[in-house]
Amino acid sequence: MSGVLAMDQASGLTQMLSAMTRRPAAEAPPAHHQASSLLAAAPAARRHCRTIAVAGGKGGVGKSTVAVNLGMALSVAGRDVVLLDADMGLANVDVMLGLAPSRHIGHLLDGECTLDELMLSAPRGLRVVPAGSGARRLAQLSSGEHAAIIRAFDELAQPPEYLLVDTAAGLSDNVTMFAAAAAEVIVVVCDEPASLTDAYGLTKVLSRDFGVRRIRMVANMVRNEGDARALHQKLARVSDRFLDVVIEFGGWVPHDERLRQAIRRQCAVVDLWPSSHAALAFKQLAGAADKWVEPERAGLDRIAFFAGRTTPVGGVPR
Ligand SMILES: Nc1ncnc2c1ncn2[C@@H]1O[C@H](COP(=O)(O)OP(=O)(O)OP(=O)(O)O)[C@@H](O)[C@H]1O
User: Fold this and answer.
1) What residues contact 205, with CB distance under 8 A and at least 6 apart?
2) Residue 41: its pLDDT value, please?
3) Domain-embedded: residue 28
4) Is 283 assigned to a binding site?
5) Do the domain assignments include residue 245?
6) Any known ligand binding at 59?
7) Which residues take part in binding ATP (predicted)?
8) What are the DSSP E strand ranges found in the chain?
């Protein structure tokens, strides 16, 4: 890639991502403006979209389970939620929800459909952008293709209130690109040494190479809150010592056989068994997430840093 092209992409990315995450300038007009604005029929302010990436490093820790059920719990609570399956090439959100996509993100990239046409309706008003399965090309998207996906969200006439992004396992660009672009990052951890070390590895890359300064850890498949907080202590202790990032306790989800049964039935447990332990935990997580205070300049600082990192000046990021 030429340096100029890389620079263009980087600055384009900065604009696209900042447009996607910034708050509308006139969210709360002064009281004396409100009456006149009723008469003036000013154009509606663009809705602020809260972006949350669900990551974890290790496979099988429950990233998709958390993304699907958090999305469903927010939808049940009346929020307008879009869930992007960013596990490109190995999609599973559509399978988990019993959806039958006829198109995937590759069609969007090829200009064969719009984002609106790609979105599938899941129960409870949740909308899903499917990733596509078995396509190697999708697993190796270029930075320009990542930017095109993000731009498609930016161009939605009415952005959702929440954009949740279910990321893949590992540390590929597909993971770091979307996690770094989101205002909030959830790292899902379960009580296994490899889950903790992979979560630490992901945290290290996101903080060191992409300027992510806060991550929220969600403990999954644990017995109780005490075990969840013990896991958080382990991860926070080591990252406090070696990394410039705060790992906050985001919540916990118990191991619940109902969850596996719901997945076998291709339903979200929050929808199928709303009173199960797991469903109640996801509703609690959604309630907490709804109150999370975003950084004052959500996304902006991080995006500038992030865009810089996509420009391979002086070599690839460490
Ligand atoms: N809280 C839970 N209780 C019981 N089973 C769970 C729980 N969370 C996840 N599981 C089960 O763990 C398995 C892996 O979950 P999931 O597919 O969400 O993980 P993942 O991290 O997205 O995996 P991958 O990285 O491979 O996409 C699934 O079979 C799911 O049913």
Assistant:
1) 171, 176
2) 42
3) no
4) no
5) yes
6) yes
7) 58-65
8) 50-55, 81-86, 120-121, 127-129, 162-167, 184-189, 214-222, 246-254
Q: How many domains does the chain have?
A: 1
| Ligand 1 closest atom vs CA 253 | 1
Q: Rounded to whole angstroms, what are the CA distances from 258 to 6, 269, 279?
A: 48, 7, 9
How far, in Å, from the CA of 220 to the mean position of ligand 1?
A: 9
CATH number of the domain where residue 181 is located: 3.40.50.300
* 87 within 8 A of 140, measured Cβ to Cβ: no
Q: How much is the ipTM here?
A: 0.98
The Cα–Cα gap between 130 and 308 comes to 29
Q: Which domain holds residue 229?
A: 3-22+49-309
- The reply to whether 314 falls in a domain is no
What's the CA-to-centroid distance between 259 and ligand 1, angstroms?
Answer: 9
User: Is 63 annotated as a binding-site member?
Assistant: yes
Would you say the CB of residue 169 lies under 6 angstroms from ligand 1? Answer: yes
On whether residue 27 sits in a domain, the answer given is: no
Q: 86 CB under 6 A from ligand 1?
A: no
pLDDT in tens, 127-173: 999 987 766 777 788 888 888 887 888 778 888 999 999 999 988 88
204 known member of a binding site: no
